[in-house]
Every structure is written in structure tokens, then in C-alpha cells.
Amino acid sequence: MVAAQDTTVVRSHRASNPSRTLVCLGFCGGGTGPYHAWGGVVPSDVDLAAICYPGREGRFLEGFARNWDELADDATEAVLSAATEGPYVLFGHSMGGWMAFDVAVRIDKRGGPAPEALVVSSANAPSRGLTVKDMFPDQRDTDEQLLGWMRTHGLMAEHVLNDPDLQEMALELMRADIRVRDTFAHHSGHRVKIPLQVITGENDDVIDPDAGVQWKNLSLGDYRHDVLPGGHFYTPDIWRRLPTFIPALTAPTSPRSEGR
């Protein structure tokens, strides 16, 4: 397991007197970049941080995680590192939603500090296990199919699209994440005690119609399910403003933030 480093928690927005931090976990094939723009829409007293997984960005020289547990161990240490600065809300999109749930469970087993809330976006409940619907992109996809998927969902910047060497690196990263994702297994009985918010896209055909009910069964605390316009990544405008749909970011300040 790789210990949390300065390059592991990427803080793209700092508030002058922060009440909490929004900590984001990446989706399959993604890095911290898609979250940086949220610095302009999070509440003025909220810090923004994203967890960098091994093998990319500032951790480029590290090897990719070999399986789900290895990545979850690494992400847990990184989130706990972010938590040393005070209260936080934990967010994960798609594969990152499962990772955020798993990390929250692991932190609870260790005795905290737990997030004030868990927010999972565009993810089916992990309790149903890894199904064909969740296995997209697929390990069997060609390079062209993977590149097409990344173009469609805006995961590749223009300079990457025009650079064969950067394309190759993006494909390597995506395939590494797919391999990790495909080793995921839910452990029966795992639930979260903290408030849980589930966000899904109204036109996302990846999400089960009863995903909300399945997620609610994994929560022992407050629960809400919000359906937003668009597909797996919503509409571009909704994605840009996604933090504005997270009530936990404007909730009364936790006592733990005193003296921060």
C-alpha cells in the first residue's frame, strides 16, 4: 500500500476560513482534473480536494493499483489525510461512488474521523455486485472504442486527442482502472451510518430503475435520492454545477470544525 503523500490529496480550492472540505474520488479512467472547475461553485467557506490514485498526475512514477482492495486501502489513507484539516463531505462518481462507499465503511471500522455525509453519483448500489451493466468500458474494448468513450464523455483534452503519446498514456490509465474495477466485490452487511445522498441522471441507462431503493438499504442514517437532467455525466451545465446540488455542503457546521 502506498502511503498518502502531498501529491495524493490535490487541493484545487482553498477558502479563507473553511468550515469543511469536499473530498472527491475519481471515476474509471479519470484523474483529479474533472473536479478542479468546481472551485468556482462550491460554497465560499468550503475547500475542494480530489484524491489522486497511483499511476497518474503527481503519482505518475508509482505503479497502478493491482486490484480493488489495494486501491481502496490507498484511497482510505488519502481521505484520512484530507480529514486531518477538519470536517469533510466524501463524494464519488461512477466507479468512484463505489470507492467512496467502501472508503466510508473502512473509515467507520477504524473509528473515524467519518465524513459528515457520503455523496454517490451515477452509481448502482454495490450490494447487487458487479454486473454487465457496470462493466463499461469493457476490458475487451479496442483502443478505438475506449478513445471514443473518452471523447464522448469529455475525458480527453484536445491536446491529448492530438498527441499519440498522450493517447497511449490515457489508454493505459483507463485499462488499469478497468482491471481494478473488475475485481470489485461487495461484502454483505456493509452499511454506512452517516447521511447518504445518491444522485443519478434521468437519462442514464446504466442505472437500475430501483437503484435508489437498493442504496437506501445500505444506509443506517439519513438518506436522499436526487435525479438530475442528463445521462451518466448529466448535462455539461449540471456537471459544472454539481456541488450546488449537495445540501451537506451548506449544512450547519460540525463541532469538529471549531478551531480549524
Itemize the secondary structure elements and their pairings.
Blueprint: E1 9-13, E2 20-25, H1 33-36, E3 46-51, H2 68-83, E4 88-93, H3 95-110, E5 117-121, H4 143-152, H5 158-161, H6 164-181, E6 196-201, H7 211-216, E7 223-228, H8 236-240
Parallel strand pairs: 2-3, 2-4, 4-5, 5-6, 6-7
Antiparallel strand pairs: 1-3
Helix pairs in contact: 2-3
The computed structural class is: alpha/beta
CATH architecture: 3-Layer(aba) Sandwich
Tally of structural domains: 1
Could you report the average pLDDT, rounded to the nearest whole number?
Answer: 91
Summed up, the helix count is: 8
Low-confidence stretches: 1-5
Sheet with the most strands?
Answer: 7 strands, mixed
Radius of gyration: 17 Å
CATH class: Alpha Beta
Relative helix content: 25-40%
Beta-strand percentage? 15-25%
Question: What does it look like?
Answer:
With 260 residues, the protein is α/β, with parallel strands linked by helices. It has a single domain (9-247), classed as Rossmann fold (3-Layer(aba) Sandwich), CATH 3.40.50. It contains 8 helices and 7 strands; from the N terminus they run E-E-H-E-H-E-H-E-H-H-H-E-H-E-H. The chain has a 7-stranded mixed β-sheet. Helix 2 packs across helix 3 (95-110). It starts with 8 loop residues before the first strand and ends in a 20-residue tail after the last helix. The relative contact order is 0.16.
